[in-house]
Amino acid sequence: xxxxxxxxxxxxxxxxxxxxxxxxxxxxADEIVFGIAQDLDDDLDPHxxxxxxxxxxxxxxxxxxxxxxxxxxxxxxxxxxxxxxxDRLSYTFKIRQGVKFHNGSPLTADDVVYSLxxxxxxxxxxxxAIVASVEKTDESTVVIxxxxxSVEFPTYLTAAIIPADYKEQSSKPVGTGPFKFISRxxxxxxxxxxxxxxxGEKAGVQKVTLKIIENADSLILSLQSGxxxxxxxxxxxxxxxxxxxxxxxxxxxxxxxxxxLNNAVKPFDDIRVRQALCYAIDKYxxxxxxxxxxxxxxxxxxxxxxSKYFLPELTDYYTHDAQKAKALLSEAGYPDGFSMTITVxxxxxxxxxxxxxxVKQLKEVGINAELRLVEWASWLEDVYGNRDxxxxxxxxxxxxxxxxxxxxxxxSTHKRDFINYSSETYDELFARAMVTYDDLxxxxxxxxxxxxxxxxxxxxxxxxxxxxxxxxxxxxxxxFYPIDVIDLSGLHFES
Length: 495
Fold this sequence. Notes:
alpha+beta; seven-stranded mixed β-sheet; six-stranded mixed β-sheet; 21 strands
C-alpha cells in the first residue's frame, strides 16, 4: 500500500511538472529576450532623448506623422496622406483615424498640434525652428506653415506625436507604436508588450524583455545558456562562439565609427599630428581582423547607406603609410612620438576591439596609446558632456535621415561639438546649407563639409561597423533600416 501511495505521489508530481513545463514553454513561445549593452540612461520623453541607444529601442514605442521604411523612404504613419504646396511653405496632413495611444486615449488633431508646437517652442528639435504655425483646420486636418522652405523638413516629421494631456513621458512613456512600455528596472531590463490596439500590423510576439548586459562575455554566455534569444551589435568573433544554435543576420549599424580627437588639446590641436594618426591607422586591418571582413570603410563623417551624400573617394584619402606618419610627427615636433589615452565605453565590445588594434598600430609609429575603459554613464558625462578627454573610439548615427544630423555637430558653436572642431570655412558652409532651397545645391554643400573634415583630419575615420545580429534558431523577422534602430515588431517564432 505504501509503495502504491509513493508511486501515485510521484505520478502526480511528474504530471504537475509536465504541466508547468508546458505552461512555461507556451509562455516563452510568445516572449523574446533581447540582449542590449546599455541601459536606457536617458529621458524617456521622446522629444528629449539624446542617447542613440535609447532612440533605437523607443523606435518601437513612438511614431510621427511620417516614419522611415527599410528602403530609406518616408511613409505615412499617423497621417493617412499629406500634401506639400508648390512653394514648400505649407504642409497639409490628414490625420489617421482610429489610432489609439497606449493609455487608451484616441489620437486627435489637437495632439498633433501640441506635439509639433512643443518641439518648436521648447527648442527640442532644431528642425522645427522654421515652423511659423501649426493649426487644426478641422478634426482630421492639420496644416503646418514654414517661414522658409526646407528640403529636409519632411524628415523631421518622424518626431513622435504624444498625447497633449499626459505629463509622465519621462518615466512612463506613452506613444502609438506597435509596442507599449511596461516597466524599466535600472541596469536590469526594459519590458515592452505588444499593443493589441495598434492601428497597423501587429507585433509578432506578445512581450519583449530587453535585458541589459554590459559585459560582452556575459552576453555571449547568456545567449549560449538560453537566457537571451537575440542580441545585436556583435562582432564576427562573438558570433563564432555561439555555434549552430543561432543564425547571424548581417548589415551595418548606419553609423560613423572613428577615433574621435579632441582638437583643442595638445598634441591634437596640430593638424600634422591628426594627419599622422590618419596615416598610422589601417582601417582595413581593423575591419578584417576584428569584424571578419564585414563593415564598410569610410573617410569622413558620412556612411555609404546615405548614398546621396557619401563620397567614396574620401575613403582612401589617407592610405596606411607608417613612414608618412613618422615624417609628419617629426615635422610637428614629435620625432620620438608621444603618449595618449583612448577612452572607450566599456559596454561596447566592437569599439573596444577596434581601439585595441589602434593601440598596436600607433605603437608602430612611436605613439604610446593607453586604452582606458569607462562605464557608459561616465563616458556620456566626461567625454561627451564635459569634453574631458584626448581621444575616444565610438560611433555616431544620423538619428534622422538627413546629412545635417551627421555634420552639424562639428560646427564650432554646436553644443555637441565634443571634439572642439573649429573652422570658419566649415561654419560658413553649414550656414549656406541652411538657407538654400535647392536640394542639389544643399547636397553639394554637405559634400564640401565632408571634404573639409577629411582634409583637416578632424578625426580618424574608420568604418560603418558591421551590425551582426545573433538570432536563436526558430526566430525570424530581423529588419534593417538606413538609420540605427532596432525594430522589434517583426520578430516572431517560426511555426
